[in-house]
Structures are given as C-alpha cells and as structure tokens.
Write a structure and sequence with these properties.
The complex is a heterotrimer of chains A (about 230), B (about 400) and C (about 200). Chain A is an alpha/beta fold and about 230 residues long. Helix content of chain A is about 20%, strand content about 20%. In chain A, the strands form 2 sheets. Chain A has a 5-stranded mixed β-sheet with strand order 1-2-5-4-3. Chain A has a two-stranded parallel ribbon with strand order 6-7. In chain A, β4 and β5 form a beta hairpin. Chain A is globular. The two termini of chain A are about 50 Å apart. The N terminus and C terminus of chain A are likely disordered. Chain B has a single domain, classed as Orthogonal Bundle (Cytochrome-c3 Hydrogenase, chain B), CATH 1.10.645. The relative contact order of chain B is 0.19. The model of chain B has no long low-confidence stretch (mean pLDDT about 85). By secondary structure, chain C is of the alpha/beta class. Chain C has a 6-stranded mixed β-sheet with strand order 2-1-3-4-5-6. In chain C, α2 packs antiparallel against α6 and α3 crosses α6. The chains are: A alpha/beta (about 230), B alpha+beta (about 400), C alpha/beta (about 200). At the A-B interface, α1, β3 and α4 of A face α2, α7, α9, β6 and β7 of B.
Chain lengths: ~230, ~400, ~200
Amino acid sequence: MANPPNEEEFQLSLTTDTPAATDVVRDGILARVQAALGDKIVESLLKPGDDIWVRVRTESWRETAVILRDLGFSYFDFLSAIDWLPSPFGRGEDDPTEPAPVRDNTIRHGYTGGDTRIQMLARVVDPTTSMGINLKADVPDDNAHIESWTTVYAGANWHEREAWEMFGITFDGHPDLRHIYLPTDFEGFPLRKDFPLLARIVKPWPGIVDVEPMPGGDQDEPAQDGDAQ
Amino acid sequence: MTLLGDRQQLSYIASQAADARVNLELETEGMTLNIGPQHPATHGTLRIIARLDGEQVVWVDPSCGYMHRGYEKLTEVRTYPQVTALVNRIDWLGSFANEVPFILAAEKLMGIEAPLRAQHIRTILFELSRIANVSLFLGDLGVQLGAITPVFMAFRDREYVLNLIEGATGGRFHPNFDRIGGLKDDLPAGWIDETRTVMKKLRRFCDEIEDLLFGNEIFQSRTRGIGVIPRDIALQYGMSGANLRASGVDWDLRRDQSLPMAWDKVDWKVWTHPDGDSFARCWVRLQEVRESTRIVEQLVDTIPAGPVMTKVPRIIKVPEGEAWVCTENPLGEMGYYVVSQGDLGPFRVKIRSASFNNMSITPWLLKGVYVPDIVTILASLYFILGDIDR
Amino acid sequence: MGLVDRGRLPKPLTQLFNMGRSYSLWVYQWGLACCAIEMGAAFGSPRYDVMRLGVIPLPASPRQADLVVISGTVTDKMAPVIKRLYEQMPEPKYVISMGSCANCGGPYWDSYSVTKGIDQIIPVDVYVPGCPPRPEALLEGVVMLQQRIKNEDMGARWRGEGSQPMALAQSAKQAVKKQVVDGESAERGGVPVVVDH
C-alpha cells in the first residue's frame, strides 16, 4: 500500500447514501408525466433511486414526445428498439454437427410489459434536474411502423435511420430513411434476433471444443520442417 | 423541419440565390466535394459529401458506417466479462472509460457495489483515460488548422499517461481492467508518486498548448464565431460533453447524478462557455484536462484502504431486469441500456455513444460555412469514428 | 531497367538497389481504428521516431507510396476503398497488416459487417499481431520488411513469380514458431510474422 488511508476520510466515505425505498423526486416527476399524458400511458414503473419507465400507446408515440418536450424534457438522449423474441440460435454456441437443440421461444417482456415482438425504446432527459424517462411503445408485428420523432427532436433523425436499418421499423414522416451504417445492398435487419451471425453458425464455438494441443507439447514432436508455414 | 427554423432556411435561400447569381455571371456549376472516407481530418473513416457553391457549403451529407462493427449484436452473443473486453474499443482513446458504465449497469442489476477502494481507483483511471484522450485532441487540433508542432507535444506527454495506465492495468491501450464487483488488481507500488509527477507534467503541457495555440491570433480568427451551436439546438440533437457545455449548458454527469464513483469526494469545477463556437468547445476541453489532473491528484491522496474486489460468483449470471447507466466520458455522455433475462450474457444492450449524437448535428451545422471551416468544425466537435459507428 | 526486365541484373547491383529501396520506404498510413493511434505514435511521435529507420511516413497520395500500413478494423463497406487505393500504388509495393482486426477480424471475428482479414482483399507481406500492437511491434514489423526487401530478387518479382525472399525463410519460420509458442506475446503485440506468397 503506497498510501496510508486517512482514517477520517475513510469513515466519511463509508456513509454513501443508499437508495431510498421512497423516491420523492421521481415520484413527483412521474405524477407530473402521468397528469400530462393521461390515458396515453399503458403502464408505468418507478424504481426508487433508479429510473422511470413509461409505456405509451403506439398511436400516441409522437404526441408523447411533444408533450414531454414541452414539459421540460428537452434533451433527446437516444432512440432505439428491442426485439423480445428469444434468439433461435442461443448465443451461437451450438455444434453444427449436432441437431439443433429445442429452445423455448416464448416472449418474455421486460419492465412495463408489452404485447408485440418489437418495442420502441427511447429516453428523454430534463437537463435542469438531470432526470430522465425511458419510453417504450409497441410496434405492430405485421407491418412494423411508427410515427417519426424528427419534427419533435431533430436529433432523432439519425437514430431512426439506425433503427430502420437494424430492426426494419418504418418511421412515418421521416424525411430521409436510408442506410446509415451498412452498405446499401445489405440484406436483412441485423439486430432482429432471428438474424444469424453466420461465422458462429458454420463452425463450432471454440469455447466448447477441447483446447488444442500446445505446440511444443508431446503431440508436436513428429512435426517436420514446413509445418510452421 | 419547421423546428430548425430560420437559420437553416435563410442559409438555404442565400445559397440558392448565390447559386443562381454565380451561374448567371460566371456560368459555373455547383461542385461536389468528397472528403474521406480516409482523411486525416476525419479521425478515422468518416466520409463527408459536400455540395459547394463557390467556397460555400450548400448541403452536406456525412456518411458514416465505415467503422461499423456491430457491437450491439455482438454483445448479445457474449457473456458479461467478454463484453467488457469488447466495449473497450468503442472510443479507443479513452478505453477504460467505456468499461465503467457497462460494469456499473451490470452491478446495478446484480445489486452489488464495488468496494470503496475500487471506486476510487476506477475514478482515477477514468480521469486518466480522459486526459489521454483529450490531450491528443489538443495536439491534433493544431494539425487540423495547419500547426504541426502541438501534435508532437501531445504524443510526447500522452505517453506518460499511457505508461501510468499500463503500469496499473497491464494494458497500454485497452486495459480491460474493470470487473463486475471491483477491479482486477490493486495499484502497483510507487504508482501514486509517479502519478503526481505526471500530473504536473500534464498541467505544464496544458499551459504550453494554451500559449502556443489558444493565444495564437490565427487560431483565434479561425475558430472564433465558427460553427456556433445555440443552446436549444444542442439539447435537441442530444449533444453532450464539452460540446454541450460550450453552448452554455451547465450539465456534467459526473456532478449531476449519483453513481458509486468518487467524483463527489473531491473539489473540482465544471467549466462552461457562453459562446457555443469552435473556440469555446476547444477551450472547455482544455480546462477539463486541467480539472482532471486536479481530480486525480486529490484522489490519489485519499484512496481508502480495503479490498478492490467484492464477493461475486465465479460464473456471473445477472438477474432479470433492465438498467440504464451513463457517465460523462471524454467525448460526452456514454450510456448502456442493459436488458437482462437472467442469462450468462445480456439479452440486449443499447449503446448510447456520445459521438453519434454529436455528429448528427453536422448536416445542420455545416450548411452555409466555408470550405476550410468544415475541418475546423469537425475538429472542434471532436468525434471518434468507433464511437459514432460502434 | 531492361536488365531487371530480362532478369539479368548483376547481383551486386541488385543488392545496391535493394538497399536503397529498403531505406527509403514511403509509407502510406491507412489509419482505421485503434491501431491508427498506435501507428500515429510510432510514426508521428518523437519517442518512437520511425524516420531513423529510413521510413518516411508522409506521402501525399498512395501513388507516391511504397508501403501501406493497414491498421485497424476493415469493414465490408470499407474493403472496396482499400482495394482501390492499393491498386493506385506503383509496383513494387508492400503491405503491413497491423493488429488483429486487419489480420483476421480480431475481436469482431463473428460480426456481420467486418471483413475477416485484409488478406482476403490484398496480399500482405508482414502481419503484426496485437490488439493493438505496441508501436515497437510495428517498428519491428517495418524492420522485418526491410530485411525482406534487402534479400529480394527483383527479376523474380518482375517475372511475376512473387517476391522471393532469399535468406529470410529460416528466420520467418522461427518467427512463426516463436509467436505460436509464446501465446501471450501474440496477445500483447508480440513478434510480427513474415509470410511468403
């Protein structure tokens, strides 16, 4: 130990505030948001000392953003989506020579529940209090589309392009929906759970096969010149 | 587009008028200028397609994705400890700072907290990676504007910080030192004295840069009033870090939220600048390096005794839930939205990286500027391609 | 250079040419990701100072370059651009692949958008392992390349038989051996590997 601890400091810093069972600030924020949004909210959740989650109706996605922005949540943090389908490939560690294992593919939604496979996920923050809200909304299964936020938060433009590219969600009213990351001829929506990572499928995951014999070990003795190449 | 309002519209009208006039008088046509994807001013592989009218930019399309590595998909097929090794490489200049919010999110879901000593050392390494990151920015800034000397000074003094990081973590560039529940190891002997010396050197570097660059008349005339971002536009685009504080928003996530880190135990200042132009952004970053050296100096004096690792199971399974943790990284707000379904690896990780939001303003910001100012504005926005593309 | 053309260059003259070529390498820096910063540290910083090896890291365009250092992750979107700029370089040209990503995909071996190794697109002369390699490792890779150039038979290269290193085969094998045995050094920017085409 290069530095002897300062006894007094040490005692002081032990008394970090533990998350309270009640969270007055966030209670107030949630009450304000609930009053403003009214029946647009499907479900909301508050974890004291942690965060607020609000799920709104699909058709009031844009309206929610307008109301929240006028309520002081003027900082646009991010916008994305979640695909709740359990991956049909697991973590891609199956042995390709074996028959594929049977997987449970029932959808388990996270906080504030949900009805569809793909959900929107966005976060807006009030810069004066540094308190944010996580927003969710269901995206229809058959025709994945939702209203665009670009006219509410200008920064949503690139985020929606990303979500369109990664999940195949169409944003109604987006001025410029085209590829942002991937080449224009890319096929598929990579962040959907049923998009396979082919490199993992075609060869067995190195973690499940036995460790290769080390060169220089017993098995390596008969090796002749030219092996290294 | 109604929101973006007058500025954009005016510049569009002006450019159209200019276009028509030039076409009439000189019979010239507009020109398309392609910068990148491999260009020194783009810190990597950004491509910018600018439509010019004479010397003025009429329309610009930043094309990213040349460094897209698919992080969010890869996190879904990796376990939690493996993800830490991966996320180092998002913002490759401040790599340790990338690990911290992810680890904090996982710890939040597991309901554990790192020991105090680990929290302190984490904060020190976090600030060291900020210094390593932003000091290179300060040197690089000179190169972008035609002054070659600062970059040599930056590389010289940055090596001292990298040596410190290497001494503590074993990794010069990508430490992968943070663990769920604490740190891999304790600090080596003699590290703290060395740190004090290096912090003094870094402050001298800041003074040198301030004299050499910020006091330079050419530098000032090339950056002052160039690329002004008003406060409400910056908020709308979700800009963060020094870019936001240079627009007069007094918001720093190190101070304004309670995280199990040690920033609240030391005395430091959040710098803001009212101007919102390129000079303000560079100036705020310079001050932040100075503040970081102060934070580190105070923290190494008050590291509490104790273990650096709390008790965690050998095979880490994170309980079901969702957590959002963001920290003030060298480039701005970096956050991880981690969704866990009780498995060995995360179910979904949304990585909110600072540069993506910071860059999304460029189509708006670069409209109407002159060609040399494109480089100035890009340099002052300070992005790292890995942080945009992920 | 008709002598080279017909493969009849006298040996002392070849060695003279090769020496000249090996100590005036103009490097085109292809900085892509994390490795670009370490390459910058190797090429641009006073601490590592690549110019003492006779390497000039500042050509204005690939058309003036002898060597390109591909440092960092190559994505499928970037790959055509790399091929195009490589094709603009004049012969004889050399390639150093720096870092795990450029060598084989590295930590993104299973990604949907990353090219698994730059050698799928262009031929590589020296691989420098590491994630990222230290600047010293890159410098060692440069030195290895210089050795290779010194021993090269220009006539063979001209006839399209590829670059045939004359005396390096043995040391290259040792290098491979060492790199494999010392698994740790590969992780931390260990010994660069020279390959023959």
